[in-house]
Amino acid sequence: KSLLMKRNHLIKMRDLHLREEQDLILIEIIKILLSNKEMKIKTGIGYDVHQLKGGEHLCLGGIKIPSELEAVGHSDADCLIHAIIDSLLGAANLRDIGFRYPDTNIQYKGIDSKELLKDCVEKVRAKGFEIGNIDSTICLQTPKIGKYIPQMQECLAQIIGIDTEDLSIKATTTEKLGFVGKSEGISAYAICLITK
Questions:
Q1: Across all residues in the chain, what is the average pLDDT?
Q2: Quick one: which of 54, 81, 90, 166 has the fewest CB in 10 Å?
Q3: Who wins on pLDDT, 148 or 37?
Q4: 11-42 tens-digit pLDDT
Q5: How far is 149 from 170, CA to CA, in rounded Å?
Q6: What is the pLDDT of residue 14?
Q7: Distance between CA atoms of 172 and 51, rounded to whole angstroms?
């Protein structure tokens, strides 16, 4: 009889302990849910365009792509990086790329756009934001750049400090329409999500 009582007592204590653990887990879940209510979520959109001329390579997405056309610009004219920078600055209410890195400033003449992106990410994080994800589209008639996208993702994700799964890069032509279709220029769009 005493063994049975002890067994029942142990079962009750175990059940009580389990309920306490469940209550603690529930409290933690409630805390997380309440903190998420105060989370600030912001989005930004960026756009950039550059003229194309004869050359040996195209700076795009932080890498050099062999090409008979290259983009013309004050910096290295990396259209994709510039669109991403503009989206991040806009989301964090930090104005735009022309304001932060003006083409009238000799300091930015010929600069590697990866350096501008690093600085932009630091500015966004200095305001207390974390970068959630980025989605982008490059509009370019030629050269075909699909095979270079994974390399661009690796390069840019490392600079931004996000996983490649959170950085989408797409490429399209304009079916030979407009300045992109005539290979007179390149354009890029980017949207981002940042949280605080």
A1: 90
A2: 54
A3: 148
A4: 565 555 556 666 666 666 666 666 656 778 99
A5: 8
A6: 58
A7: 17
Residue in the structure block whose two tokens are 């992109």: 180
What is the C-alpha to C-alpha distance for residues 49 and 126, in angstroms, rounded to an integer? 28
Q: Give the predicted TM-score (pTM) of the model.
A: 0.81
Identity (one letter) of the amino acid at 192?
Answer: C
For the chain, give the secondary structure using H, E and C: CHHHHHHHHHHHHHHHHHHHHHHHHHHHHHHHHHHHHCCCEEEEEEEEEEEEEECCEEEECCEEEECCEEEECCCCCCHHHHHHHHHHHHHCCCCCHHHHCCCCCHHHCCCCHHHHHHHHHHHHHHCCCEEEEEEEEEECCCCCCHHHHHHHHHHHHHHHCCCHHHEEEEEECCCCCHHHHCCCEEEEEEEEEEEC
Q: Are 132 and 101 in contact (CB under 8 A)?
A: no
Give the per-residue pLDDT at 38: 72
